Prior knowledge:
Number of helices: 0
Number of strands: 11
Largest sheet: 7 strands, mixed
Distance between the termini: 39 Å
Shape: globular
Low-confidence stretches: none
Helix content: under 10%
Mean pLDDT: 95
Strand content: over 45%
Radius of gyration: 13 Å
Amino acid sequence: xxxxxxxxxxxxxxxxxxxxxxxxxxxxxxxxxxxxxxxxxxxxxxxxxxxxxxxxxxxxxxxxxxxxxxxxxxxxxxxxxxxxxxxxxxxxxxxxxxxxxxxxxxxxxxxxxxxxxxxx
Length: 120
């Protein structure tokens, strides 16, 4: 079992920046893939970005060039630097982890979420 705790959410004006962090508990096995998901109000959860242990990344088209995902394997911590924020980025952001390949589609561990609100 892996516990995930997000932090860094808040309210910001359009064009601003925020950096999310996600601390993962120690696991008995390597965490192969970590990622960020978000759920805007009244909508389904969507993938934002993910990163494997070697640092290979994938981004949703809507955030490419604005968001940067990174991870510190030694600290078991995941980050999401969000720049040029838009109102449509408003959502609950969730950290996720998986012992499987990033393209497996399996995310057995999910954090409680942190709210990001962008005002226009």
